[in-house]
Design a protein that fits this description.
The structure is a single chain. The chain is an alpha/beta fold and 275 residues long. The chain has a domain of 191 residues: 3-Layer(aba) Sandwich (Rossmann fold). Helices cover 28% and strands 21% of the residues. The strands form two sheets. Strands 5-6-7-3-8-9 form a six-stranded mixed β-sheet, with helices on both faces. The longest helix has 18 residues. It starts with 7 loop residues before the first strand and ends in a 37-residue tail after the last helix. The structure holds adenosine-5'-triphosphate and magnesium ion. The site of magnesium ion has 4 residues, from helix 1.
């Protein structure tokens, strides 16, 4: 184990989708135990970026190294957990209880052939942490959207992964559940040296919790501590555009949950500044 290496090194990657460059010359380094938040407009490439980090998408140029290894390689595959943006949209045909869904997170090469080795305690702990103990034996398709969201997060928590990659895990959660989850994740970093990379539109929540914030739009345009994160007006100039809203705030509670890629969705106003 190369303990002196950073956990993650993204070196100047370019990622194409459908032959078009979506991410260009983006770099990011993370140390173990860090909690890094990624914010940016709809269509800015956040999901593309994390999928390239996970090795789900190939890089056109540049490289990604996890503990010095390629993503998806045998050396690192069990140590990374991913909660995708659509993870909570389980097919209606899936018939699983919450406990069964969460236990899937503990499946790995070792436990697959010997389920007795899977961590029953870790499963119950994860279910309790996300506050779903009372519905643990219920079919996941009978849960509310927010509860289902918490169930897929519990699945990631129950895994033995030390690097959690979460794409919009706060969508569909009310403010109280968001705060609970963020505290939980922050505790994971501090107490268990887990490393978290999380995409969210909720700048306020990210400012309060993340140790470092990334602003991503085609490339990394800001990387630094939350207190130095640019204001919406500064972001507009960073992006070389006029702030079409004249700087005044809108209610983004709806916009935050939408994922359309219409031209209006690419304004700075799409980012959620305050409740
Ligand atoms: N499978 C695909 N083929 C071609 N282009 C794609 C594909 N998926 C996404 N894109 C394009 O890549 C760009 C970035 O998409 P991506 O999903 O990474 O953005 P995002 O920042 O995660 O947005 P959101 O905030 O809405 O989740 C968009 O212009 C999108 O249309
Ligand atoms: Mg996305």
């Amino acid at each position: 184990m190369a303990d002196d290496l950073p956990l993650l090194v993204v070196d100047n990657i370019t990622v194409h989708r459908g032959g078009v460059p979506i991410i260009e010359n983006a770099s990011l380094t993370m140390e173990a135990g860090e909690f890094v938040g990624i914010v940016g407009p709809n269509g800015g490439g956040k999901s593309t970026f994390v999928q390239a980090i996970l090795g789900v998408l190939k890089c056109h140029a540049g490289s990604v190294r996890l503990k010095g290894h390629a993503p998806m390689s045998d050396e690192v595959i069990g140590s990374v957990a991913w909660v995708s943006q659509a993870a909570a949209n389980l097919p209606k045909s899936v018939r699983l209880t919450v406990r069964e869904l969460v236990s899937l997170g503990t499946m790995n090469k070792r436990t697959w052939f010997n389920p007795r080795l899977s961590h029953g305690d870790a499963i119950d702990e994860a279910i309790e942490m996300v506050g779903l103990l009372d519905v643990a034996n219920r079919d996941v398709n009978q849960l509310s959207g927010g509860q289902r969201q918490r169930a897929v997060i519990a699945r990631a928590l129950a895994s033995q992964a030390d690097f959690l990659v979460l794409d919009e895990p706060l969508v569909g959660l009310d403010r109280a559940s968001r705060n609970t989850l963020l505290k939980l994740l922050d505790g994971f970093c501090h107490e268990q040296n887990k490393t978290i990379l999380m995409v969210s539109h909720d700048i306020t929540a990210m400012r309060q919790t993340a140790h470092r914030l990334i602003y991503l739009e085609d490339t990394v345009r800001f990387d630094g501590p939350p207190p130095l994160f640019p204001s919406l007006e500064e972001l507009a100039s960073l992006r070389g555009i006029e702030d079409v809203h004249g700087g005044h705030h809108h209610d983004h509670s709806e916009a935050e949950c939408t994922h359309d890629h219409s031209p209006s969705a690419t304004t700075v106003g799409q980012l959620k500044e305050d409740e």
